[in-house]
Amino acid sequence: MTRCRLLTFLLALFIVPFANAQSDAPASREDVLKLFDTMKTRDQMKAVLDSVTRQQRTMMHEAMRKRFPQLTDQELARLDQFSSDIMKDLPLDGMLDDMIPVYQKHLSKADVDAMGVFYASPTGQKLLREMPAMTAESMQAASPRLQGMMDKVMDRAQKMAQEDQDKRESPHPVTEKN
Description:
By secondary structure, this protein is mainly α. It has 7 helices and no strands.
Protein backbone atom coordinates (compact mmCIF):
# COMPACT_ATOMS: atom_id res chain seq x y z
CA MET A 1 0.00 0.00 0.00
CA THR A 2 2.80 2.40 0.85
CA ARG A 3 4.57 1.56 -2.40
CA CYS A 4 1.38 2.29 -4.33
CA ARG A 5 1.02 5.67 -2.62
CA LEU A 6 4.69 6.44 -3.21
CA LEU A 7 4.38 5.48 -6.88
CA THR A 8 1.23 7.61 -7.25
CA PHE A 9 2.98 10.52 -5.55
CA LEU A 10 6.04 10.23 -7.81
CA LEU A 11 3.86 9.97 -10.91
CA ALA A 12 1.92 13.06 -9.80
CA LEU A 13 5.18 14.95 -9.35
CA PHE A 14 6.16 14.06 -12.91
CA ILE A 15 2.79 14.32 -14.70
CA VAL A 16 1.37 17.53 -13.15
CA PRO A 17 4.31 19.78 -14.13
CA PHE A 18 4.34 18.17 -17.58
CA ALA A 19 0.59 18.78 -18.01
CA ASN A 20 0.96 22.40 -16.91
CA ALA A 21 3.89 22.89 -19.26
CA GLN A 22 1.74 21.59 -22.13
CA SER A 23 -1.06 24.06 -21.32
CA ASP A 24 1.46 26.92 -21.23
CA ALA A 25 3.10 25.91 -24.51
CA PRO A 26 3.08 28.73 -27.02
CA ALA A 27 0.73 28.53 -29.96
CA SER A 28 2.48 27.87 -33.23
CA ARG A 29 1.89 29.85 -36.40
CA GLU A 30 -0.06 26.86 -37.72
CA ASP A 31 -2.22 26.77 -34.56
CA VAL A 32 -3.16 30.42 -35.00
CA LEU A 33 -3.77 30.04 -38.75
CA LYS A 34 -6.04 27.07 -38.04
CA LEU A 35 -7.96 29.22 -35.54
CA PHE A 36 -8.21 32.02 -38.12
CA ASP A 37 -9.63 29.51 -40.61
CA THR A 38 -12.16 28.23 -38.09
CA MET A 39 -13.13 31.78 -37.19
CA LYS A 40 -13.20 32.83 -40.85
CA THR A 41 -11.08 35.76 -39.71
CA ARG A 42 -10.28 36.99 -43.21
CA ASP A 43 -13.97 37.12 -44.14
CA GLN A 44 -14.80 38.71 -40.79
CA MET A 45 -12.15 41.39 -41.29
CA LYS A 46 -13.44 42.13 -44.78
CA ALA A 47 -17.04 42.39 -43.54
CA VAL A 48 -16.06 44.68 -40.65
CA LEU A 49 -13.95 46.88 -42.92
CA ASP A 50 -16.82 47.12 -45.41
CA SER A 51 -19.19 48.07 -42.61
CA VAL A 52 -16.77 50.63 -41.19
CA THR A 53 -16.25 52.09 -44.67
CA ARG A 54 -19.99 52.50 -45.24
CA GLN A 55 -20.48 54.06 -41.82
CA GLN A 56 -17.53 56.43 -42.23
CA ARG A 57 -18.75 57.41 -45.69
CA THR A 58 -22.15 58.38 -44.25
CA MET A 59 -20.56 60.34 -41.40
CA MET A 60 -18.10 62.02 -43.77
CA HIS A 61 -20.91 63.02 -46.18
CA GLU A 62 -22.89 64.56 -43.33
CA ALA A 63 -19.88 66.45 -41.97
CA MET A 64 -18.73 67.64 -45.40
CA ARG A 65 -22.22 68.80 -46.43
CA LYS A 66 -22.55 70.67 -43.13
CA ARG A 67 -19.16 72.38 -43.55
CA PHE A 68 -19.27 72.88 -47.30
CA PRO A 69 -22.91 73.12 -48.43
CA GLN A 70 -21.78 73.95 -51.98
CA LEU A 71 -20.16 70.52 -52.31
CA THR A 72 -21.60 68.66 -55.30
CA ASP A 73 -22.63 65.03 -55.52
CA GLN A 74 -19.85 64.54 -58.06
CA GLU A 75 -17.25 65.86 -55.61
CA LEU A 76 -18.56 63.53 -52.91
CA ALA A 77 -18.51 60.63 -55.38
CA ARG A 78 -14.88 61.43 -56.19
CA LEU A 79 -14.06 61.41 -52.48
CA ASP A 80 -15.93 58.10 -52.13
CA GLN A 81 -13.93 56.61 -55.00
CA PHE A 82 -10.70 57.74 -53.38
CA SER A 83 -11.74 56.06 -50.12
CA SER A 84 -12.80 52.89 -51.97
CA ASP A 85 -9.47 52.73 -53.77
CA ILE A 86 -7.62 52.94 -50.47
CA MET A 87 -9.79 50.25 -48.88
CA LYS A 88 -9.52 47.80 -51.78
CA ASP A 89 -5.74 48.00 -51.60
CA LEU A 90 -5.66 47.04 -47.92
CA PRO A 91 -3.46 43.95 -47.63
CA LEU A 92 -5.76 41.67 -45.61
CA ASP A 93 -3.40 38.70 -45.85
CA GLY A 94 -0.52 40.84 -44.64
CA MET A 95 -2.66 42.15 -41.79
CA LEU A 96 -3.48 38.57 -40.79
CA ASP A 97 0.24 37.76 -40.82
CA ASP A 98 0.81 40.78 -38.57
CA MET A 99 -1.82 39.48 -36.14
CA ILE A 100 -0.25 36.03 -35.68
CA PRO A 101 2.55 37.13 -33.30
CA VAL A 102 0.02 39.12 -31.26
CA TYR A 103 -2.13 36.01 -30.79
CA GLN A 104 0.99 33.99 -29.97
CA LYS A 105 2.05 36.56 -27.38
CA HIS A 106 -1.28 36.56 -25.55
CA LEU A 107 -2.61 33.04 -26.06
CA SER A 108 -1.12 29.64 -25.33
CA LYS A 109 -1.61 26.61 -27.51
CA ALA A 110 -4.29 25.40 -25.06
CA ASP A 111 -6.10 28.75 -25.36
CA VAL A 112 -6.01 28.63 -29.16
CA ASP A 113 -7.18 25.01 -29.18
CA ALA A 114 -10.07 25.80 -26.80
CA MET A 115 -11.09 28.79 -28.92
CA GLY A 116 -10.99 26.57 -31.99
CA VAL A 117 -13.34 24.10 -30.30
CA PHE A 118 -15.72 26.90 -29.33
CA TYR A 119 -15.75 28.57 -32.75
CA ALA A 120 -16.26 25.19 -34.44
CA SER A 121 -19.33 24.59 -32.23
CA PRO A 122 -22.84 25.60 -33.35
CA THR A 123 -22.82 28.54 -30.89
CA GLY A 124 -19.41 29.68 -32.08
CA GLN A 125 -20.51 29.43 -35.71
CA LYS A 126 -23.67 31.42 -34.91
CA LEU A 127 -21.56 34.11 -33.25
CA LEU A 128 -19.35 34.27 -36.34
CA ARG A 129 -22.40 34.52 -38.64
CA GLU A 130 -24.04 37.23 -36.54
CA MET A 131 -20.92 39.25 -35.72
CA PRO A 132 -20.92 41.38 -38.90
CA ALA A 133 -24.57 42.37 -38.38
CA MET A 134 -23.97 42.98 -34.67
CA THR A 135 -20.95 45.16 -35.49
CA ALA A 136 -22.86 47.12 -38.14
CA GLU A 137 -25.84 47.65 -35.83
CA SER A 138 -23.56 48.66 -32.97
CA MET A 139 -21.83 51.19 -35.18
CA GLN A 140 -25.21 52.51 -36.33
CA ALA A 141 -26.29 52.87 -32.70
CA ALA A 142 -23.07 54.74 -31.85
CA SER A 143 -23.20 56.90 -34.99
CA PRO A 144 -24.88 59.95 -33.41
CA ARG A 145 -22.26 59.99 -30.66
CA LEU A 146 -19.42 59.61 -33.17
CA GLN A 147 -20.93 62.27 -35.43
CA GLY A 148 -21.03 64.69 -32.50
CA MET A 149 -17.37 63.98 -31.79
CA MET A 150 -16.49 64.40 -35.46
CA ASP A 151 -18.31 67.76 -35.52
CA LYS A 152 -16.28 68.94 -32.52
CA VAL A 153 -13.02 67.83 -34.15
CA MET A 154 -13.94 69.58 -37.41
CA ASP A 155 -14.94 72.77 -35.49
CA ARG A 156 -11.64 72.77 -33.62
CA ALA A 157 -9.61 72.09 -36.77
CA GLN A 158 -11.40 74.88 -38.61
CA LYS A 159 -10.84 77.27 -35.69
CA MET A 160 -7.13 76.39 -35.55
CA ALA A 161 -6.79 76.89 -39.31
CA GLN A 162 -8.51 80.28 -39.04
CA GLU A 163 -6.25 81.31 -36.16
CA ASP A 164 -3.18 80.32 -38.17
CA GLN A 165 -4.42 82.24 -41.18
CA ASP A 166 -5.16 85.31 -39.03
CA LYS A 167 -1.62 85.18 -37.62
CA ARG A 168 -0.11 85.03 -41.11
CA GLU A 169 -2.22 87.94 -42.35
CA SER A 170 -1.76 90.27 -39.36
CA PRO A 171 1.22 92.64 -39.41
CA HIS A 172 3.93 91.87 -36.90
CA PRO A 173 3.93 94.35 -34.06
CA VAL A 174 6.94 96.69 -34.04
CA THR A 175 8.76 96.81 -30.76
CA GLU A 176 10.60 99.97 -29.71
CA LYS A 177 14.19 99.78 -28.56
CA ASN A 178 15.26 101.88 -25.61
